[in-house]
Amino acid sequence: MTMQSLRSWPAKVVLYLLLVSLALLTAFPFYWMFVLATHDRSTIFRAPPPMWFGTATAANYERLLAALPFWRNAWNSLYTALMATATTLFFCSLAGFGFAMYDFKGRDVLFGFLLGTMMVPGLLGIIPYYLIIRWLGWLNLPRALYVPGMASAFGIFLMRQYIASAVPAELLDAGRIDGLGEFGLYRRIVAPLIKPAFGTLGIITFVGQWNNFMGALIVLKERTAYTLPLALRSLQGLISTDWGALMLGTALSVLPLLAAFLVGSQRIIEGLTAGALKG
Amino acid sequence: MERRPGVRVLVSAIVALVLVVAGSAGVAARTTLTVGVFPDLDSVLKAVIPEFNKVYPDIEVKLQTLGYADHHNALLTALATGSGAPDVVAIEIGYLGRFAVGGGLTDLSKPPFNAGRLKDLFVPYAWGQATTADGRIVAIPTDIGPGTMFYRRDVIQAAGLDIGSVATWNDLVQFGRKVTRDLDGDGKPDVYLIAAASTIADAMYRGNIPEGEGVYFDAQGRPVVDGPRFVNAFTVAQQVRRAGLDARIGAWSNEWYEAFKRGTVAVELSGAWLAGHLQNWMAPETAGKWGARDLPENMYVSWGGSFYAIPEQSKNKDAAWKLIQFLTTRPDIQLLAFRTTNAFPALRAALEDPSFDEPVPFLGGQRARRMWAEAAARVHVSVIHPGDPVAQEIVGSALTQVLEEGKDVRQALTEARQLIERRVRR
Amino acid sequence: MAGPGDAPMEQASRGAGAAGHPAPALPRPAATRTGLRARARPGRGAWWRRRAAPYLFISPFFILFAIFGLYPILFSFYLSFHSWNAVGGLGSMEWVGLDNYAFLLRDPWFWKSLANTVLLLIISGLPQHVIAIPLAFILNSGLVRLRNFFSSSYFMPYITSTVAVAMIFTTIYGTQYGALNTALAWLDGHGFRWLWRLLGLELPVNWLGRAAYIKPAIAMLVVWRWFGWNTVLYLAGLQTIPRELYEAAMVDGAGIYQQFRWITLPLLKPIAFFAVTLTIIGNMQLFDEPFILTGGTGGTSESGLTVALYLYRTGFEWLYMGSAAAMSWVLFVIIVGLSVLNFRLMGRAGLERRGA
Question: Which of A165, A200, A252, A262 is the best residue to mutate to test the C interface, defined by the most C CB atoms within 10 Å of its own CB?
Fold first, then answer.
């Protein structure tokens, strides 16, 4: 099998069919979420469930706004996620650079330790987490959500692995000869080379924070400080849930992510154009 | 990107630390009372707060609404850490047992509350659920869910049967054999007795609990889940499943709602609250086709209910107690709640209101509310135990093993008892 | 690789190495190079800065960990030797020694949940990578257009909120009207009956009710949610592989499979190590998916009960916080063990770096 044979049109048709059906499979829930957002709960729970748009959108929206300060909550989510993304990208790439490109005493031990912290199940941490945030006086503040994860082990691990494979050591030496300082190496050489990793980590961080639920539940006590996941879930009762309003709110909350991801994946592509640098 | 953000964060962390250590206390002329609730109780509060402020204009009520499970989780964290709980919290019956232990909730039997004097105002079993074995009163009941049997008049009539013939659980099984029918001749029944056989067991082992005993534990705290009450319940459920009389539909699924709409199940056992949901959104088009009656063998069970409590850490206990009394002891407010969300009142005076004698059109004009009020009065007072949640889980697991995997009833229950014994010892 | 003690030497040798190759040209930003170079001639200060820089770069993690990470870990370690019903407040802990651990080792539900977790790790972890790697390769190969569109749509499940996922999948897995069973029934009528016989499926399948089907149902949801996430990771990794390598291989007559086998797979190791490690860590702590599909219970005969879910229920629903803490430490030890195993199998290469 050669590249040529894959370029023949029957092979291409099969390939596209495969890719498109996979795409449909993953995109379907999105479509369906938007469909359900236009129904109220008496038609959502039909069997078989509705597959086409309904007429309850305006009514759902009205009830959503009556139940929640929705746009306020959306702003909280956006602000927290943006702050998380900006700080995480910076601190994680810097630390990833440190771990990937330097030999220093204790590096392997420290890196092993960092990996080890990812393996501690986090669930029981929520009680001490609350105590720390209260002690810092950060209850109801966005920073209570994004500061603890600014230099996440996951992000550093991702950046380290990426930098190790994307940045040739020779480039750094050349940079040093050209008189760049250590931070200058990061800013002028490493950062431009790792755009795809910025894109990936950026999206993952943004989405992760946007959907962060457990942390928000513990440190946000005011309705006006709620982020979207918390606010939307507050519509869920034991037996009574306004599913129409909830689905509309969920659909609206996913829209910005969709936009962010489309922009983000653009950046991944851009990273390819830096290919000229890689010998 | 410069390194400044990091520095700024560190500085602000230090500043924040200093501020916290310095501390601050706000002094307000008006009392602000925070109230933590979950849906639908938030609708009740929204309707009641204006009335409350007519009487207490100097108390400002702030609602903190969270999802049902989230609300109870946040409350657990707040109690564990001793801070962050609202001044008044709603607690659903399924969570009450675990929050009652320890000293997290204010004992309302003590002065200045002296809630003991309110005891006779409420349906006895609801009051009993909020009283611990050592006599503390940790919450005040606001709504209850007396267990009942809903049935489809049209479906049963079409089968030429009479629901009145069902006096015992065994009768129900026999009734099920006749009502479960294949109408279109495809070899599969089109009408079943009930959605899930497990519901029958759930109802049976919660009924006729001996006075002074809990659902799963006796007065000494020993698990009783391999006793006759459970063996009997499991055996009947197993008969129903083996005879193919249940549709094997889980509650709160699309299949469940659809079965109600299409009339493919003849009966359903549930709390009285199900009627409101059937009418409002599950199956509004079936109005008039339903009926309700007591469970077989005059079994009276508790099926849901909510309470209000004051966390010990609250700084506004006085105002909190005013609100709780307003919500739970005033008949007009309890009736307002009933009209808002169909929450069946726990206050006896509210149940004596003439509106409870009115016919319910959804149930074919039956005077069902009076029947439920009387059923509620007959539910035995049972004792809550901190091990109830884990026991409920283990028993539920034993039941699915019996129904789904064909395990022997006695063996399943003996194992369940051993598991519970080991778990609650610590 | 030079030892940590002789940095200046290392710098010199690397410089020589770089000079020996036709090194890629740096985008030289300004003509003032020579001036800068004169100032930064490797003197004492530069040497010291180079030694200190990595510590400075990695310090934010350790500072934040000291503030936000250390205390929770110590707390849960301390807790694992106590009996604590959380509603009693922090003062109500009781020392029980190793009792929590002893209970755990004899607790049938714990062992069951551990077996479930490991089984789910395999049946939901493996397919993610088996799908993601070739998919990323195809998307990166330039064989298909709309790469952006495809990778975006594969990533979508990660974006969806759990509320939406819960709604959608309980409906898909519905017994009578579920989309999956509807599809199976259609196939059944079109000559696929032998397949169900082979698999031992009985239509309609009670996906979330029967013990035997819960794990496959969970695994399908996990794969659906995460294969795109891994695809994006691998895509980022593939972009570090120079296009020239493929072109050279093609000139030498290598087919697409040979390219994949001899260029892509070896050079993908750092990212593959990263992705596999994350799958191990993530799936051993699998919580969301079984929680969603079993309504938080673990399902019939606890067959969907993972350790993380059991831990949550033990601590937060049944209020045996000490037991839950002990469980999280046992789980931690197991995850570390599996990660070390992974490291032994592929890590050496996974942690190496280019140009070193």
Answer: A165
At C327, the pLDDT band (50, 70, 90 cuts) reads very high
Question: DSSP string covering C48-82, please?
Answer: HHHHHHHHHHHHHHHHHIIIIIHHHHHHHHHHTTE
Rounded Cα distance, C128 and C8, in Å: 44
Q: Which residues pair with C82 in a beta bridge?
A: C95
> Which tens digit of pLDDT belongs to each residue from B226-257?
999 999 999 999 999 999 999 988 888 888 99
List, as ranges, residues 69-98 from C with C-beta within 8 Å of A.
69, 71-73, 75-76, 79, 86
The pLDDT score that the predictor gives to residue C25 is: 35
Structure tokens at B158: 């079409």
Please state, in angstroms and rounded to a whole number, the distance separating the CA atoms of residues C181 and A48: 12
Give the list of residues 6+ apart from residue B91 with CB closer than 8 angstroms, or none: B72, B75, B99, B139, B306, B307, B308, B309
B3 touches chain A (CB under 8 A): yes
Q: Do the Cβ atoms of B404 and C177 come within 8 Å?
A: no
Does residue C1 sit at the A interface (CB-CB below 8 Å)?
A: yes
pLDDT (tens digit, 9 = 90+) per residue, B24-76? 434 446 899 999 999 889 999 999 999 999 999 999 999 999 988 889 988 99
The reply to whether C22 touches chain A by the CB within 8 Å rule is yes
Is B77's CB within 8 Å of A127's CB? yes
Taking the CA of residue C348 and the nearest CA in chain B, the distance in Å comes to: 33
Model ipTM over 0.90: no
pTM value is 0.85
Is the CB of A101 inside 8 Å of chain C's CB atoms?
A: yes
3-state secondary structure C200-222: CCCCCCCCCCCHHHHHHHHHHHH
Q: Which of C158, C126, C173, C208 is nearest to A26 (CA)?
A: C158
Q: Which helix (H) or strand (E) holds B10?
A: helix B4-22
What distances in angstroms separate CA C103 from CA B142, B393, B413, B423, C80, one per listed residue? Answer: 39, 18, 21, 9, 12
| CA angle centred on A109, ends A107 and A112, rounded to 5° | 105
Contact A230 B12 (CB under 8 A): no
Three-class SS state of B293:
strand
Distance CA C47, CA A175 (A): 15
Q: Which two tokens stand for residue B58?
A: 């100097």
Taking CB atoms and an 8 Å limit, are B254 and A46 in contact across chains?
A: yes
Asked whether A87 and A146 are in contact (CB, 8 A), the reply is yes
**Distance from C-alpha of C87 to C-alpha of C319, rounded to nearest angstrom:** 8
Q: Nearest-CA residue of chain C relative to A198? A: C236
What is chain C's mean pLDDT, rounded? 80
- Which of A17-29 are b and which e, b meaning 16 or more Cβ less than 10 Å from the residue's Cβ? eebeebbeebebb
Indicate the residue of B19, B68, B257 with minimum beta-carbon distance to A238.
B68
Residue among B225, B230, B232, B88 nearest B168 (CA): B232
